[in-house]
Design brief:
By secondary structure, this protein is mainly beta. The chain has a single domain, classed as Jelly Rolls (Sandwich), CATH 2.60.120. Helices cover about 5% and strands about 45% of the residues. The strands form three sheets. Strands 1, 2, 3, 5, 8, 10, 15 and 16 form an eight-stranded antiparallel sheet that branches. Strands 7-6-9-4-11-12 form a six-stranded antiparallel sheet. Strand 13 and strand 14 form a beta hairpin. The protein is globular and about 50 Å long.
Length: about 190
């Protein structure tokens, strides 16, 4: 399912595209404007796996402030009722995959949108980082993560939480049971 961002979705994307002067947005996708990306939605391959993106702090002692996630629960504005609450989780892990922070909630205030997809800004307690770290998104096979279908940077992964294993590239399946590398649309902000 290929999607395009519409005007209302772009309002949610403004922090990702135009951050305040004292905030840095780290991107590991192609970095082009979200409205011009060739995007789709991808579910995690298993219930216990996460779509993970590797970031590098721009300087020692950089402070992570929030996580920006483009996703959808598939709700359509033509529906007469809101969807049932579905869980999701975000984890921040260091370069050795040790857990630094875990956040869990339901998707309703973050990823339920009449336009089908939105960029959620999920504020987290300040985490001071140096070097590489990972942001893991658990959609539990119910919430589709925004996926850039071109220009793979090699920084998107699958993290198997039960095995503690990071698989080397984020991929999405094609109709003929092949896969190709993609970028998960997760960004972070900090200063």
């Amino acid at each position: 399912m290929v999607i395009t961002c519409c005007a209302a979705t772009l309002c949610f994307c403004s922090l990702a595209e135009n951050p305040p002067a004292n905030i840095t947005v780290l991107k590991q996708d192609s970095g082009i404007n979200l409205s011009k990306m060739n995007t789709s939605l991808s579910l995690s391959p298993t219930y216990g796996s996460a779509q993970a993106v590797k970031f590098t702090a721009p300087r020692p002692g950089w402070t992570l402030k929030s996580v920006l996630v483009m996703a959808s629960d598939g709700w359509n504005a033509s529906s007469m009722q809101l969807p049932s609450p579905l869980p999701f989780a975000i984890e921040i892990r260091d370069s050795d995959l040790r857990l630094l922070y875990h956040f869990a909630d339901t998707q309703l205030p973050y990823f339920t949108s009449g336009e089908g997809i939105r960029m959620a800004n999920i504020e987290i307690p300040d985490i001071v980082l140096s070097g590489s770290f990972f942001v893991c998104f658990y959609g539990y096979r119910s919430i589709g993560l925004g996926t850039e279908l071109q220009n793979a940077t090699g920084n998107s992964y699958i993290f198997d939480r039960l095995a503690g294993t990071l698989y080397t590239s984020g991929v999405t399946p094609t109709s003929n049971n092949q896969t190709f590398p993609v970028n998960w649309l997760i960004r972070v902000t900090g200063n």
